[in-house]
Amino acid sequence: MNRSAIDLWVGIFVAIGFGAILFLALKVGNLLTLDRTPGYHLEASFDNIGGLKLRAPVKAAGVVVGRVEAVRLDPKIYDAVVTLRIDQHYEFTRDTIASINTSGLLGEVYIGLDAGGDPVMLKDGDRIRKTQSAVVIEKLISQFLFDKASSGAGGEAAAPGKSVEKPAGETKK
Amino acid sequence: MSAELTAGVAQVLRRIGGTVTGAVSKLGFVSRFLLAVLWHTPGAFRRMHLTLREIYFAGVLSLVIILMSGLFVGMVLSLQGYETLKRYGAGEQLGILVALSLVRELGPVMSGLLFASRAGSAMTAEIGLMKTTEQLAAMEMMAVDPLARVVAPRFWGGVISMPLLAALFSAFGIFGGYIVGVPLIGIDAGAFWGQMKAGVDFWPDVTNGIIKSFVFGVAVSLIAVFEGYDAKPTAEGVSSATTRTVVMSSLAILALDFVMTVFMFRGASVV
Amino acid sequence: MSLPAKPSSSRTAEAIAACRVDPAAAAVELVDVSFNYDVRPILTGITMTIPRGKIVAIMGASGSGKTTILRLIGGQLRPKSGQVRVGGLSVPDLEPEALYELRRKFGMLFQFGALFTDMSVFENIAFPMREHTELPEELIRDLVLMKLHAVGLRGAAHLMPAELSGGMARRVALARAIALDPMLVMYDEPFAGLDPISLGVVGQLIRRLNDVLSITSVVVTHDVYESLKIVDYLYFVSGGRIVASGTPEEVRASGDPFVRQFIDGAADGPVPFHYPAPVYREELFADVG
């Protein structure tokens, strides 16, 4: 095997090796989709974010419009404050509701945005006022059992375990 | 009776002590060896054609087995994974399953094991044989350092080849998973790639996989060249050195994998 | 097992100065050298002088420590006591760089050749030239062909070592040993395993090259016949000591029992036939259990 043939093959090998790495980075991973398109930030606080992860999608009407960028705990009122990064192209009304949903039973957790009719739009740094926290299965089950128990005991369905709402505004299913 | 007992116990203790001190001193020797090899790195790169030649032998000649294995592993992963995911209605997650398994774990580890048994054992045998036929001694007597000319190029050939091979393994595995998942099983192609892209992060998934394969490359190459250099200059010596290379490299890969996984992915699902 | 000494990847002036050889001194001198392998004594009280331009044979039975002497001269081993001097320089005391400088002046022919199997004959001989000189390729080509011509293998330049017969491989290794025109060439069992014609060829080459290139040769061997034909002086080693020495004529006429046993090839003599064992009759009739 003479030298130039070896050089050629090594060159090919290194090239396809790097190609594979690039493939993994771009097509498989999400290297370039992050922070490429210009966007703005919104905040939303929830009682319980359930299984929401960083970089989870933010969808409106099922279309991905942004990503969850940061999550922290508010030390004063013990709520989870989520920072969303929304694509510059999309605007949302001031009365948009942010809810934490699961796609399917065991699918990924994402934030869904439901826009309202308010003429004023949210700007960079605004806080979404109406939110609905994640449905925690255990609480659902205990609520169901409690309902069953109380209706079985002849009492009214008091439903104390309904999902806790934010003080401002109703919840939407 | 007690005299024999104490003698027996003393014997056992001596053996244990001897083994431990032997292992520790071997570890020390291997570290010194690594330092010596690293010291001679400039020499290895000055003779670039030697290192290129070793990249060819270690990397290019391993391509067939790596690509084929990657393909099959990806396909099997896809088949098996779909069976289980289907039960929870999570069939669309197949892409993420295949991709993450490969990129995080299977790619670096399996290609490391394959590399150790193919290229690692070849390196050991080569160097051991050169030692047996006194070629290394001849080089020394000609005032050419065998570490710079024989050992270091092979070491760096392995270190450079490993991450590339691991990436190729993962890439082909994902492709294999795609072939089984989309045309065969019928999962939507868009869902396959889309979910994968959402679930696999460059940082930490892909980069940690690359770091792992680099670490494995260093471990396997070091063990391979060391065992060859240290082999007894006989036929049995070389053959047992070759076996030791494969065994020790495999153990090292699995142990290092565990340690690195603990550090890298411990907090993966924590927000 | 030890790591090799650091080579002179850059030839320092001190290293070159440190291995400047004294032209008046004998080529090799060993004075009362002792060497142990772990606790086993291999050599004891070895004293020998090898004058310049001569061929000296070191003879002895297998395992008598002959090759160890070569390794001591070449600096691969350090004596436990005594002095090893090459051209007046004390080899064990040299710095690693100086030792590597000194080795450029050596040539060594290993048993069975030790050719680099992944290179052709041409490249094997060009190896020391390419490693240690900056000569242009055309010049190296001419030098290699000259060396090959001296050993009669110029036509085999493009063969691989695997394609050579034993005798040819030995000759190529010899050409490689003299590639840089060394001052001292060491031969480790150059006659081992060769057919009669190759034996004669190698012996003649050793003698001719020694005289033509004015080098000093140390030949470790146990081939009596060939050695007596070509060497100037012989040392006999047995049990780690020098038991006899002399010129070929002295040796042929010697009455020393060891020399006689060696030369005549007698099965028993100062080197016993039987490996130490208990008394025969007692061992045969020993009670079992």
Describe the structure.
The complex is a heterotrimer of chains A (173), B (271) and C (289). Chain A is 24% helix and 28% strand. Chain A is an alpha/beta fold and 173 residues long. In chain A, strand 3 (63-73) and strand 4 (80-87) form a beta hairpin. The radius of gyration of chain A is 23 Å and the shape is elongated. Residues 155-173 of chain A have low confidence and may be disordered. Chain B has 271 residues and is mostly helical. Chain B is built from ten helices and no strands. The longest helix of chain B has 40 residues, at 146-185. Chain B starts with a helix and ends in a 6-residue tail after the last helix. Chain C starts with 12 loop residues before the first helix and ends in a 5-residue tail after the last helix. Chain C has helices at residues 13-18, 66-74, 96-103, 121-132, 137-150, 166-177, 196-212, 224-230, 248-253, 257-264, 280-284, and strands at residues 28-37, 40-50, 55-60, 81-86, 89-90, 106-109, 184-188, 216-221, 233-238, 241-246. In chain C, helix 4 packs across helix 5 (137-150), helix 4 (121-132) runs parallel beside helix 6 and helix 7 packs parallel to helix 8 (224-230). Chain C has a single domain, classed as Rossmann fold (3-Layer(aba) Sandwich), CATH 3.40.50.300. Chains B and C meet through helix 1, helix 6 and helix 7 of B and helix 3 and helix 4 of C.
Largest sheet of chain A, in brief, is:
8 strands, mixed
Helical fraction of chain A? 10-25%
Q: Helix- and strand-based class of chain A?
A: alpha/beta
The CATH topology of chain C, please?
A: Rossmann fold
Strand content of chain C: 15-25%
Q: Biggest interface: chains and residue counts?
A: A-B, 35 and 40 residues
